[in-house]
Automatic annotation (TrEMBL):
Family: Belongs to the transthyretin family. 5-hydroxyisourate hydrolase subfamily.
Keyword Zinc found: no
GO molecular function, a single term: hydroxyisourate hydrolase activity
EC code(s) of this entry: 3.5.2.17
Name the UniProt record assigns to this protein: 5-hydroxyisourate hydrolase
Domain (Transthyretin/hydroxyisourate hydrolase) ranges: 4-117
Residues reported in the UniProt entry to bind substrate: 12, 50, 115
Organism listed in the record: Phycomyces blakesleeanus (strain ATCC 8743b / DSM 1359 / FGSC 10004 / NBRC 33097 / NRRL 1555)
């Protein structure tokens, strides 16, 4: 159950090709409202590749369609590695505002995988 102290949506970036956390990856979360996405918050992953404060503390989650964007090219540029996807966008439906939604991103320069985590 999401609380006022923890973001109802969190994410985690793992660079699968290198076996390391994706630290300092820019992340943006948006909500679809009347056919347009509006930015709720921006953040950066921590040393462990996690973003526990993706939404502001106390944010009241609502049912709806959300989009998380990961700035992958900027990350790969910092480690001098080419990549095919300049950013990764994951669109998901938040159906139950009382639940916690965790979005892991397994990343490599030419592929990515995601799933609903716990």
């Amino acid at each position: 159950m999401a609380t006022d102290k923890k973001s109802p949506v969190t994410c985690h970036v793992l660079v699968a090709s290198l076996g390391i956390p994706g630290k300092n990856v820019g992340v943006k979360i948006e909500k679809l409202d009347q056919g347009e996405f509006s930015v709720l918050s921006t953040s950066v992953t921590n040393e462990d590749g996690r973003c526990p404060t993706l939404l502001p503390a106390g944010y009241k989650a609502e049912k709806g369609i959300y989009r998380v964007t990961f700035e992958t090219k900027a990350f790969f540029d910092t480690i001098n590695q080419e990549c095919f996807y300049p950013y990764v966008q994951i669109v998901f439906e938040l159906a139950n505002p009382d639940q916690h939604y965790h979005i892991p991103l397994l990343l490599s320069p030419y592929s990515y995988t995601t799933y609903r985590g716990s």
